[in-house]
Automatic annotation (TrEMBL):
Transmembrane segments: none annotated. Gene3D superfamilies: 3.40.50.2020. Belongs to the ComF/GntX family. This is ComF family protein. It comes from the Bacteria. SUPFAM superfamilies: PRTase-like. It comes from Lysinibacillus xylanilyticus. InterPro entries: ComF/GntX_DNA_util-trans, PRTase-like, PRTase_dom. PANTHER family: DNA UTILIZATION PROTEIN YHGH.
Length: 196
């Protein structure tokens, strides 16, 4: 019988398969990157993000989002599962404009949550194809509303948690939060993969 070799999704080095009772009896995911690649990501000191932005994260985002490597959604699934598994708030990933999603072929925020088996709903629709990363700090702060409620969306009077890939000025999260609060949400918090 041939053994299937699993490779690190970032550097293509062979991964040593780990079979344990913990993996078999819990929601423990098989690692998708090697320890060397994992060590390149810097954990965030804040409670509202998993990681800090650095060169390793810049490379990861480029490959995942812009080179459309959807397999990389699995890289942080264990950490995201651990963070969200007991979350009481309804999770809403920050949405992409439909044109951008068609270009990229997948919603990078939704794929991160799917890879970690985290339930979510979508209530927001992006109103512009402009990216915040193409703007300077002043332009980001002064930007027009980025979102609207989806047609037929119903915002309940309860707590929601917005999930985005990176927070720099917080403009995207602020705009999304304002739409939800105005529509009747009791409380809106946010969490990001990366603190910029």
């Amino acid at each position: 019988m041939n053994k299937i070799e699993t490779l690190c999704l970032l550097c293509s080095q062979p991964l040593q398969p780990v079979i344990s009772w913990k993996m078999l009896l819990t929601n423990y995911f098989q690692p998708t990157i090697c320890d060397k690649c994992s060590a390149r990501f810097e954990h965030s000191p804040t409670a509202t993000a998993l990681y800090q932005y650095n060169e390793a994260m810049k490379d990861y985002l480029h490959q995942y989002k812009f080179l459309q490597d959807v397999a990389l959604a699995k890289v942080f699934r264990q950490e995201l599962y651990a963070r969200f598994k007991n979350e009481k708030a309804t999770i809403i990933p920050i949405s992409m404009h439909p044109i951008k999603q068609k270009e990229r072929t997948f919603s990078h925020m939704e794929e991160l949550l799917k890879a970690a088996n985290i339930p979510f709903i979508q209530l927001l629709e992006k109103t512009t194809t402009e990216t915040q990363s193409s703007k300077n700090r002043v332009e980001r702060v002064q930007t027009a509303p980025l979102f609207r409620l989806m047609v037929g969306a119903h915002v309940e009077h309860k707590q929601y948690l917005l999930f985005d890939d990176i927070k720099t000025t917080g403009t995207t999260l602020r705009h999304a939060s304002e739409i939800l609060l105005h529509a009747g949400a009791r409380n809106v918090q946010s969490f990001t993969l990366i603190n910029g």
